[in-house]
Design a protein that fits this description.
Number of domains of chain A: 2
Radius of gyration of chain A: 22 Å
Radius of gyration of chain B: 15 Å
CATH architecture of the largest domain in chain A: Alpha-Beta Complex
Number of strands of chain B: 1
Oligomer: heterodimer
Shape of chain A: globular
Structural class of chain B: mainly alpha
Distance between the termini of chain A: 6 Å
Number of helices of chain B: 6
Order of helices and strands of chain B: HHHHHHE
Order of helices and strands of chain A: HEHHEEEEEEEEEEHHEHHEEHEEEEHHEH
Largest sheet of chain B: none
Number of strands of chain A: 19
Strand order of the largest sheet of chain A: 2-11-10-5-4-3-6
Helix content of chain B: 40-55%
Number of helices of chain A: 11
Distance between the termini of chain B: 22 Å
Structural class of chain A: alpha+beta
Chain lengths: 417, 117
């Protein structure tokens, strides 16, 4: 049985206050010892992670607004699960997930053009290009060419193979267990206390970036899980960044969260002009009033964004326009492709621009953020090479790197369960 | 916008033709390709001609969504989008086409990169 930090089984977690009251409590509960690099460097542990984490936990694969209309489909290639999934919105409006596999002989129903592929199912059906088997977006096998030439064919059993799928705060999650041991609501129960209620689906204007990194997925995840690096790595793109404070840790195992505060930075003339466009708009101005109550409860004016780790591979930074101008929230996701290969996806979410000036301002903010991400990703392949050299076998973690310690401890719990 | 206003705008921005020719493209991937090949002096020239008029341009672009701009503003909009992406290279990166100490931007994919901004 997998347990949380207090020894309760994860399925028994309830919405108790997740807040850590002090750095001392953080140290007392989770320790201060260096953290082993074994789970990053050992390919055998990656195999265990695939089996015991990625095939057993809920994973975000889409947002509801990516497939807003009946018949909309998103295909997601997921090497870590050895499959490709198709997420559909059926005639009944329900979102479902299926293996992207024809039940005839295994061909992909929807050919992929990228790591993510979007299609509209005409007449609400999906047709395999191999032999023309036709499936409804609810998975039902609708028709089979030359069906009377099959000596035996149970069409009811030849539905698309469905995968557990549910929606939380307009984020679509799947779980590969035939019967998940926890519902999505239970899995994210503690997280909902911190993140529930923000109108995520209003911010449909996305600027999406991705890259394939030659590193273990946790090297990338860890690099984005702490604010300690900001004054150094981002000295170029965030000049004069001052008063950085990574604090207010909250633990809802296997998830955790924290808050990034900052006193400010040297704003350039161009950024000031573009920011003024967004800050002058009712839709894009800072909206601290929309933050869930558990985030920045004292109303510190230097709040930038909330930084959680949603186990195992998702980060949703919620800023409500308080950090980067106009930016409602941004996400990182880290998809293992192999032990030493990771697909990183970073997306900036804004409310839709009403004018061309607002769109240009969003492009500026997104470019600044993309540039910061270029600075972040610059470290990852070197870090992985360094760790794989065996020169060090432990990571020395300071208090602001707590999320790394917490993820590492939860990975150990899952693979040893 | 009536024809008189349209002609006035075209006349007002006639000096931008060289900038339009070099920098104005509808999609992020096209603009990135231009930016990666730009020199420090080109960034400086772009900045020095755009920044003093940025407020004026943004005001002109504040009356319509991007897909409903009058045709005479299409070029200005693309130029402002290019400036939005290029300004940090002059203001922060000393005219470097690359973000210093960064990952190779050509390995970064903008999933929206081929869509018109």
């Amino acid at each position: 049985m997998i347990t949380n930090d207090t020894g309760d089984s994860i399925s028994e977690q309830k919405s108790a206050s997740p807040r850590i009251s002090s750095t001392q409590e953080l140290r007392d509960r989770f320790g201060v010892a260096p953290v082993s690099t074994e789970s990053i460097c050992n390919p055998a542990i990656y195999d265990l992670e695939k089996e015991k984490i990625f095939r057993k936990t809920w994973l975000k694969v889409a947002t509801t607004w990516e497939i807003p209309e009946i018949g909309d489909c998103k295909v997601k290639d997921l090497p870590v699960l050895d499959t490709s999934l198709v997420i559909t919105r059926g005639r009944d409006g329900k979102i479902r997930a299926f293996h992207n596999v024809c039940t005839h002989r295994g061909n992909k129903i929807i050919p992929e053009t990228d790591t993510e592929t979007y299609v509209r199912a005409r007449a609400n059906v999906l047709t395999c290009r191999f032999h023309g088997w036709v499936f409804s977006t609810d998975g039902t096998l609708k028709s089979v060419p030359a069906q009377d030439h099959f000596g035996e064919l149970d069409t009811a059993c030849a539905r698309l193979r469905e995968v557990a799928c549910d929606v939380w705060q307009d984020f679509v999650f799947i779980n590969m267990e035939p019967e998940p041991s926890q519902t999505l609501a239970d899995y994210l129960d503690g997280l909902s206390v911190v993140f529930g209620g923000y109108p995520y689906a209003e911010s449909t204007q996305a600027y999406r970036y991705s890259t394939v990194l030659d590193c273990n997925w946790k090297v990338a995840l860890y690099a984005f899980s702490e604010g300690y690096h900001v004054p150094t790595i981002h000295a170029g793109s965030l000049p004069g960044f001052r008063g950085a404070d990574h604090a207010e840790f909250k633990v809802m195992s296997p998830h955790a969260s924290s808050t990034i505060f900052a006193g400010g930075m040297d704003t350039t003339p161009a950024t000031s002009a573009f920011a003024a466009v967004l800050h002058g708009s009712a839709a894009h101005r800072p909206r601290p009033d929309q933050l869930p109550k558990a985030i920045n409860p004292t109303g510190r004016p230097d709040f930038q964004f909330e930084l959680p780790t949603i186990f195992p591979n998702l980060i949703i930074h919620l800023g409500a326009g308080c950090g980067y101008p106009g930016l409602s929230f941004f996400t990182h996701q880290f998809w293992p492709m192999a032990h030493g290969k990771t697909l990183w996806e970073g997306t900036n979410y804004f409310r839709p621009p009403a004018t061309a000036a607002e769109k240009a301002a969003q492009i500026h903010v997104s470019a600044l953020h993309r540039n910061a991400w270029l600075e972040d990703t610059a470290t990852m392949e070197d870090t992985f090479k360094g760790l794989m050299s065996g020169a060090i076998t432990e990571m020395q973690l300071m208090d602001q790197e707590f999320l790394i310690r917490h993820i590492s401890q939860n990975i150990d719990k899952y693979i040893n369960a | 916008m009536d024809k008189t206003s349209s002609d006035a705008i075209t006349s007002r921005f006639s000096d931008l033709s060289p900038l339009l020719e070099k920098w104005a493209f509808p999609a992020e991937n096209q603009r990135s390709a231009v930016r990666w090949g730009a020199s420090a002096s080109e960034f400086e020239e772009f900045y020095s001609k755009m920044m003093p008029r940025l407020g004026e341009f943004l005001e002109l672009l504040s009356h319509n969504p991007p897909n409903k701009l009058p045709p005479e503003l299409h070029g200005i909009y693309q130029l402002v989008c290019a400036f939005a992406e290029a300004a940090p290279h002059h203001e922060l990166y000393k005219g470097s086409a690359e973000v210093p100490h960064s990952f190779d931007p050509r390995r970064f994919r903008a999933l929206h990169g081929n869509d018109p901004s």
